[in-house]
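Ticket #4471: structure output looks truncated?

Reporter: J.K.
Steps to reproduce: submitted the chain below (374 residues) through the standard prediction queue, then opened the result file.
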Amino acid sequence: MSAIAPAVSITPLSWRERWQAARNRLLASPRFQQWAAAFPLTRPIARREATALFDLCAGFVYAQTLSACVSLDMFERLAAMPVAIATLAAESAIPPEAMYRLIRAAAALRLLETDGTTARLGPLGAALRGNPGIAAMVRHHALLYRDLADPIALLRGDATASLAAYWPYEQATTDRAAPYSALMAASQPMIAREILAAYDFKPHRCLLDLGGGDGSFLTAVAHNAPQLALMLFDVPPVAALARHKLEAAGLAARSRIHAGDMRHDALPSDADIITLIRVLHDHDDDQAMAILRNARGALGPRGTILIAEPMAGTKGAESMGDAYFGLYLFAMGSGRPRRPTEVIAMLEAAGFIAAKQRRTNQPMLASLITARTA
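Returned output as attached by the reporter:
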């Protein structure tokens, strides 16, 4: 006698799921695509969506065009005046026809502008030149592109990630810490500007910057809040870099450097504000909670914690969170992008109260959340 198969319970689709399924069938129809591209009311939408889809396919080529311009120092070269394409070709040891192709590609991306014989700085190239940290990240992306050459192998754990070797925290040495700290320092000014525009440090007495790197953020805060005593905590090789930087900035008398593991080691307890600048998202949940609990134990009554980093779900920059930082941190081997609600829940679980998100001018660069102790 054959066994009777057990009954399978099928959950009816919700109205939203039925609508989404119908929408997706319609959008996949070549006939509908052709109609939408021709109909006046839907034509702009169809063109916009087609462009977005093509940009997803061509994004790597765009990124490599930017990488080539950065590697050739094109934006600095063209900052003062236009330069003949033939001259740029000779200076770069690149055949004129190939240089012409690069200039045209960069102009299409608004990085440069050209009249066909000369090249000059474009609007996005000018903006990039004003933020050296972007160029540093572009150079650094060579590691990420290498890791993503076979994304399935990376996701399955079959590939050796180049970015994982860049993460110095677990087994930090001076040789490993210096390049990562330099990269963070290059992009720190634009992050610091966002934080200082959104939060006033002047009412505070003493700041402890956890995972403070080479002291770039402390240096920026010091000029904004001259009354503030400064402390930095990081792993020993990084702490040594910070000591030299703060001394060179004339801040030795105002600053104290502490070395250790911020997840487990005792933190100095005389700060009334602790900052975590682009630190929490570099750590998995259990490690991030250990950091927050350690910070909570170091703060006295009515102490403040400030977290600033790019966060998932940022309106208008959704792809930055889960797409860019999601895969970047996966390749790094530690951490994940979190939504503000997730960070707030973690703060509350660590014993903080009154956690709230504060507005920043460029949330794509840094969202900001503060909380305090009772």
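Triage note (M.O.): checked the attachment and the full token line is present. The chain has 15 helices and ten strands.
Status: closed, working as intended.
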